[in-house]
Each structure stands twice: as C-alpha cells, then as structure tokens.
User: Fold these one by one.
Assistant:
Number 1:
Amino acid sequence: MTVTVIFGSDSGATKAVAVKIAAKTGGRLLSVQKARTADYESCDLLILGCPTYGIGELQSDWDTHIGQLEAADLASCKVALFGTGDQMTYPDSFVDAMGILYDKVVARGAQVVGFTDTFGYDFSASTAFRDGRFVGLALDEDTQSHLTDDRVNAWIGQLP
Ligand SMILES: Cc1cc2nc3c(=O)[nH]c(=O)nc-3n(C[C@H](O)[C@H](O)[C@H](O)COP(=O)(O)O)c2cc1C
C-alpha cells in the first residue's frame, strides 16, 4: 500500500507530527508547497495535516496551494486528516482547518477515514466536529503535547 503524507506548517509543530506519521506508516512526506495534483491522486492512503491560523483558517501555505488539491480526482482515494490547534486560546475554532480540508476532499470524491472521538478535549466549537466526532486526528501541541504520541499511535492503528 502506498501512503503519502502532505503537510503545511508555520512554526514546525505540524511538520514534526507529519514526520512521525510518515515514519510510522512508511509514507512519502511532502510539503504542501511542493505537492502537485498528481501527488494527491497517486496513493492508496492520502494523509493531510494542517494547523489552524487566523480564527479558524487554513495555514497560509495550504491556502496558497489549495488549488492543487481542488483539482485532484480523489474518487478512488482514502483520505485521513490530522489537524493541530490550541483549544485553550481558540476554543471556538479549534482545529477548524481540518474541517475545511474535510469539505474539500469530500467534494473531490474521497472516502475519509480516521474519525476520532472528542474525549479528553475541551473546546466549544469546531468545523472539524461533525455528527459527534472529529473528522480526523485533532492534536494540541500548545496545551496537550504530552498526549500527542499516544493519540498518533492510536489513530494510525485504526487506519485501513
Ligand atoms: C495567530 C494564530 C492564530 C491561531 N488560530 C487558531 C485557531 O483559530 N484555532 C486553533 O485551533 N488554533 C489556532 N492557532 C494555534 C495553532 O494552530 C497551533 O499553535 C499549531 O500547533 C501551529 O502549528 P505549526 O507549528 O505547524 O504552524 C493559532 C495560532 C496563532 C499563532
């Protein structure tokens, strides 16, 4: 099975997680600046990671290069999402970027895998929260970094 991990990161937290996930899944690691439409399409499992910036917005490199994803045909693709955020400072937009990416990949026909429950998080609202679950793996390197490794390992264990 081929795995591709594509990430954006301003200050390195999401990149560090992406490196770990790529190592554990044997995936190919790509920054969103370098990723082209064919990279999104050419794997069995596509893993996308994005921090949230502004109030509930995509990280700037994701925003700049989102057209490459929007052009991809993901109808035969499984996609798993992870997002980094800060639930204490931004409780009303916690990991919203993951919700934005979810809508983008669903619009391109993807089957999204790797939903997680919200036990252990404390937030008020998130566009990544749908039908009682997160649409991917929510991580908080600002206030819960001690939980990240366990969360990542459990999540990878549930991926197809
Ligand atoms: C200006 C600014 C705005 C942010 N806005 C949000 C937000 O709306 N929601 C959220 O969950 N986290 C928000 N964060 C927290 C970042 O998503 C978090 O620190 C993340 O780990 C950064 O990832 P990076 O190091 O890969 O860039 C914000 C951080 C900054 C500095």
Number 2:
Amino acid sequence: MEVTLLGTGDTTGTPTIGCDCDTCERARDPDDPLRERMAERGVDAQGGVERSRFSVYLENDATGETLLVDVSPDFRHQFLRDGVPLPDAAIVTHVHFDHLDGLGNAYRLFDDLPVYAADETDPVTGESVAEGIRSRYDYLDTVSVHPRTPYEPFEVAGFEVRLVPVEHPPMLCYGLRIEEPETGAVLAITGDTCYEVPDRSRDLLSGADLALVEGLVHAEACEFHPKGGAHHDADGVPRTFGTKHMTLSGARDFAADIDPDDYRIVHTAHYVPAERAFADDIAVDGERFSL
Ligand SMILES: [Zn+2]
Ligand SMILES: [Zn+2]
Ligand SMILES: [Zn+2]
C-alpha cells in the first residue's frame, strides 16, 4: 500500500488566510530552515510547508487501484501539487466542509466516482453520512453514493475496509481500518474525534503499520475553549480539546494505546506554537509511506 498525505490540516489549514502568527509565517517563508527539514522527510516544500484540508490518497500495490479518503476543498491544488492520478473511488468519514466539499470537483473530471460512506442515521441531522452526501451532491450525476454499515468489512479498490465509529459530537463520524489483503498491510485513520473512542473501534484501529491520529491543538489551548478540555491524563493534561477533537497530548496517548508501527498526527491547526508545530510526528502535506 502506497500512502500519500494530500491534506494534513484542520478546517482553515496552515498557513491560514490573512494570519501572521509565527506558525503561518514560517510555513510561508521560502528561507526558513523548515524547508530543509521537510526535504529530509521526503517532502518537496519549495512552494511552502502546507497543511491543507484533510485528505489521504492510497494506491493498492497488488491491483494498482486507487482510493481517496475524504474529499478536501483543496482537491484541485492537492492533485496538481502531488502529481497523483485521479482516484478510482472515495470514502467520506463525515459531512463537515473540510472532508466533503471537494466533491464538486467530480464534475467533468470523472465519468463515475463511487463514494462510500456510513448508512447509520444521525439523530441530530436525521440523515446518514451517505444520505448527507447524496442530498448535497444530488445535482452531480458523476457521483454515485454507496452506503455501508459501520464495523462490517467491505471491498473497495481491492482493499478491505471497515468504518469504525468515533466521537465527534454532535455529528456522527468514522475512523477507518484499511487492509491490503495480498500483503496484510494495514492503515488506521482515526477521523475527527475526541479521545474517548469506543473500545470496539480502538481494537480495530490497533496494531496498524501506520496510524493517522487526529490532534488539533496543544493541550494548553483548552483554556481558550468555552468548554475547556476533557479526558485528562493522570497528570491532569486534557486529551480532548472541547468535545470534538484530540489535543496533541491526546493524539500521542491514543497512538500509544493503539500501538502502530508508525504514526503521524494529522488535522493540526496553526494555533500550535511554531517551535512545536513542526515536530517530526506531526504530518505535513506531501509525506509518503510504503506499507
Ligand atoms: Zn496562523
Ligand atoms: Zn469534523
Ligand atoms: Zn475536520
């Protein structure tokens, strides 16, 4: 399995439009030594160090088929920048803007883009993720929606995939366990979630070759959230920011809990101070992995 991280940021991305914080300034600065550090990680960051809106691109080594996880509003930029072909299929984890609203790009680019998503009805919206996609993109004949039941394995692009429920209140959201049957390679993706993930989902996310774990901000940022932090560790450090997302501490603890061979923190916001924002375990766009 070949994995390309097309988009590793939160909903405003890094750099954020109009922001002059140190993290955004360093991400933009062509002379910043970050460029060399990123080259050592295999990332060509000459156009800037970026965390665009979330999306992951997978290629199946055995079949050559390709799969996109989440359809970023930065779809066009990501595909041109990283030079990957259009995917054979897509999966959408939830209906937030930053994971879904690139789907309009399917117009004229695809004859048919099959999109897989969960079939459980969300009590808040009265729709499943699959129905939410269908209703928003009903005008696009090139998008076909394929509802799937959480926890039940299904096949797409030659991968065996499971949607695993996580906690991103008030909205239903799913992580993913994606296995390449020929090699046994496993990618785990937490999706947008707080730290308190159901045990059954934790078990399915465990033991992967690579885990992509959501971590939005540093734990100290919880003092600026109206709901503060939650799911504190033994030292009182919050592992959840507000109710919806993990802190970086939470993401690192979660990665230790599910014990992958390697992990990256994804969906990280520009609010993280610059001296911590570019740590080696926090993903940047363009990183690639062979599992
Ligand atoms: Zn900023
Ligand atoms: Zn979300
Ligand atoms: Zn998101």
